[in-house]
Amino acid sequence: MNQKKDNKWQLFLILLMAMAVVGLTVLSYFNHVESKKKLSFAENEKETFKKELNDMIKQNENLEVENSAMAKEIADTKAQMVSLLDSINNLGSNYSEIREYRKQIRDLRRENRVIALQRDSLQRINIQLANQLKQRDQRIASEQTKNAALQRDNQALTSRIAKGSTMQIDDVASKAFWLKTPGQLSQTTLSEKTDVMETCFTILPNNLLEKGDKELFFQIVAPNGQVINPTFETVVKGKTLVFSKKRVVNFTNKTLKVCDSFNLSNATMDNGTYQIKVFFNEELVGATMLALQ
Question: Which residues form a coiled coil (predicted)?
Answer without folding.
Answer: 32-160
